[in-house]
From TrEMBL, chains A, B:
Top enzyme category: transferase
Designated name of the protein: Glucosamine 6-phosphate N-acetyltransferase
E.C. number(s) listed in UniProt: 2.3.1.4
SUPFAM superfamilies: Acyl-CoA N-acyltransferases (Nat) (SSF55729)
Domain spans labelled N-acetyltransferase: 18-156
Keyword Hydrolase: no
Amino acid sequence: MSTNESNETLDRFYLRRLELSDKSKGFIDLLQQLSAVGSISDEEFEERFHELASRGEEHVICVVEDRISRRIVATGTVFVEKKFLRGCGKAGHIEDVVVDASARGAKLGKKVVDSLVEHARLLGCYKVILDCSMENKGFYKKCGFEEKAVQMAIYF
Amino acid sequence: MSTNESNETLDRFYLRRLELSDKSKGFIDLLQQLSAVGSISDEEFEERFHELASRGEEHVICVVEDRISRRIVATGTVFVEKKFLRGCGKAGHIEDVVVDASARGAKLGKKVVDSLVEHARLLGCYKVILDCSMENKGFYKKCGFEEKAVQMAIYF
């Protein structure tokens, strides 16, 4: 394998599933860049981790670890919703995609999203959807998404 | 109880959870008005019904039955997504809301959506979200929703 720049990037940034030890590698700090997380104890983290892991392939959290800093620098989630529509079909939902401010420009966001889309496809989903801000539309178009609808929300 | 028109409407249209027998009451025909459903055998319906029911309060399908025609005339789904964000918070997702063309004007859509929102609130979700077409934005605003983001999709 040659050691050109793209391969160094590939080697430095390692895409894998979330592990329990990632809390100590900055996973929560990374999520804070997306939205408020607040304080989560190790016990709370572990409980939620196992709840989500119990769904197996139907709820997958990807992370990118920087092998130099040993920090988690990107993440994204995909989960499967089972429906009656489309012959008892399945829809993939992508959530909580974020790249660390220090790691932007290395195409890690695309790497994460591509892997989540591929996961949904391999599980037999008939579609994969996500909600994003107007500013991020261009990024998701580069990942193969098309604008489809409007997201509406109530915050309690 | 008086027998004025609004109470008659209340009595005629009965909101409840989906039951296995609703396949024979037009539940699939109703979903066809929203999107392609295709052919689903009784066995496939039963299997998917039980898969979803096994999630208990975290995946609820509401239906409205017309007590006169004994048909299902409205439906909507809410499911809970568990996150690390917001202190290991929960987000409610509303999906697959549809009212039968023959039953429009009786505010059944609002009745369904209000019940799904209330369910998400009672389960402790910090937000409830849904995706809709531009044409349906006004309806969801009347249900208390605000426009928040753009939905992007890939259809496989």
